[in-house]
Structure formats: structure tokens, C-alpha cells
Amino acid sequence: MNKKVKSAGIIGIGSSVPEKTLTNKDLEKMVDTSDEWILKRTGISERRILEKEEPASTLAIKAAKNALRSSGIDASEIDLIIVTTDTPDYLTPATACMVQGAIGAVKAAAFDLNAACSGIVYGMTVAEQFIKNGYYKYILVVACEGLTKVVDWEDRNTCVLFGDGAGAFMMGPVEDGYGMLSSEIGADGSSCKLITVPCCAITEDDLQKRAHENKRVLWMNGKEVFKFAVTIMPEATMRVMEKAKLKLEDIKLIIPHQANKRIIEGAIKRLQISKEKVYTCVQRYGNISSASIPVALDEIVKACKIKKGDNIVLVGFGGGLTWAATIVKWSMNG
């Protein structure tokens, strides 16, 4: 066990998305929809999708290697690997174990965490506790999603939304006053059936909701999820700012879960902030669940849009229903 530290933060970042692009024009040939309809309701122009036989874990491994390279940490130094996913290749082994073996993190413990789209901030919050109490020093948090594997391609209300991708944060001790300043994770299990992907059990209600012959596909009550999302994202953002004793003017950027342009716009309106303060890339990737925040943040870092000392908010919501938010004072040099 290591000595306790005061601050834990991101010391390396990486991402990986599939090469294959599925545009709205492509979807017009697959389902009763149009580019105009999709853009108006979601803001999505295209999404990256895995090839049929390509496992999602390949993206997790690539993102993990990129985060390792960014951090300068050797894989043998990693103490723990957490993979956040709601679309694992296997129920067992855990995707985290697959990543551990592939990158040579020989001493790392490993487990998967499923908080749907909120997963990356859940994973960061778990990692922070291990690091700050001195139990572990270096923790790799990987968000990996292959949602197109569980999409019903005959349901135009959901198939237009989702894509595949992975992002990773190497987390460890950082300078006092930097890193994660405050966080909040939460859940409302009374609404758990608003987003479902059946696995080892399936109810009659699940069967009735799915027209496709494959009943183990994603189903979502989009109207109710929308109402939840536009309320909880601003609320969670304000609560973590209050905990950190910060105001909106102290925040450089807000990086929300990239679910839908209208949800993000609704959250912006409630927060009464300018669009320039909120980063969006949903138009290029669609909804990639827990991977959307780290993929977006990796783009921001590569484009030099943040610098050391900037305060950023990461905030998400997802199936469960879950939500999570954190404020990070950026500790990496440009």
C-alpha cells in the first residue's frame, strides 16, 4: 500500500474509433428515414461502426495503449484496470481482463463496470478513491462500447443514434489542487426499464417491445429519457460546482455525454450558458455511450483547446437510470 495523496487526476489520455463510417445517407438505404429527419432530431451526420466480426475489445486495447503512450507510464506499473461498458464481448472474461492481457499489465487487478453512458465518470470516481487513500498509484480507466452490435436496424427511432468507440484515461497522483475537484454519481432504479438490452433473462414485456426477430436488442423510451437527461445533466453540473465552490464563469469547458444534439441544447438552455462553453462531437460519432466523454476529451486535448489549470466538467446520464458528473482541474501540460 502506498502513502495517501491529496489529489488524483488524468495523467494520460487516448481513444480509438472504428475505421468504418456509416452516414445518414447510408441509413436511408437500410431503414425508413432521411438525412434531414436524423439531423433535425439528433444532430448526427455519421457514426463509426465496427465490422460485423470485429470485437469491441479491440477498440479498448487500442485506446488503452494510446493512453499509456500519452502518460509515459509502463504497463507493468498499472495497479488496476477498470473497463466501463454495457456491450462486453463476453459476460466472462471481463473486458478489463482482456485489456490487461493484451497490454502486458502483469500486476494489475481488473474488473468491468456497467453504469451505461455514465460509466466513465463512475469509473473515474472509483479510481480516485483507490489513488487518494494510497491503495493504488496508477489506474487505467477504459470506456469501450460496441452499441451497433445490439441495435435493431429495423427500428429507425434507435438505430440512427448509436455508434462504436473507446476512450481511456490513465489516472494517478497529481499536484495538490489539480485533478478531480469534486464528483457525484447517482441512480434512479425506479426508471430502470426506460432503456433495456436483455441478456440472460427476457420478460414478456421485453418481447412485446421488440418487433425484430432478435429480441435481445436495445429498446428505449426516448421521450422519457429525454426529459430525464435535460433535467439531470444541468442539476449534476451545478451540484459538483457547488461542492468545488466554483461558478460557471470558472469553468473552461463542459463536456457532456454525446447522446443527442437536442438533449445537449436543452441542458445548455437550463444552465443559461453559451454554446461555446460546451463541446460537442455527436455529429461525427453518434451516441457511443460511456466512450463519448473520453473520445470528446481526447479530441479537445489533441486540438489544444485546454491547458494546464483549466477547469472542465464531465457530465453524463444513461441507462439504469444513472448520472454522473465531475470537475477536473487539468494537470497535463499541452
SSE topology string:
EEHHEHEHEHEHEEEHEHEHHHEE
Tell me the number of strands. 13
| Biggest beta-sheet profile | 5 strands, mixed
Which regions have little confidence, pLDDT < 50, spanning 5+ residues?
none
What is the mean predicted local confidence, pLDDT?
95
Note the gap between the termini.
31 Å
Structural class given helices, strands, pairing?
alpha/beta
Shape: globular
How many helices? The count is 11
Quaternary state reads single chain
Read across the widest sheet, the strand sequence of neighbours is 1-7-6-4-5
Radius of gyration: 19 Å
Strand content: 15-25%
What fraction, in percent, of the residue positions are helical? 25-40%
How does this model look, in words?
This protein has eleven helices and 13 strands. The strands form four sheets. A five-stranded mixed β-sheet has the order 1-7-6-4-5, with helices on both faces. The protein starts with 7 loop residues before the first strand and ends in a 5-residue tail after the last strand. The mean pLDDT is 95.
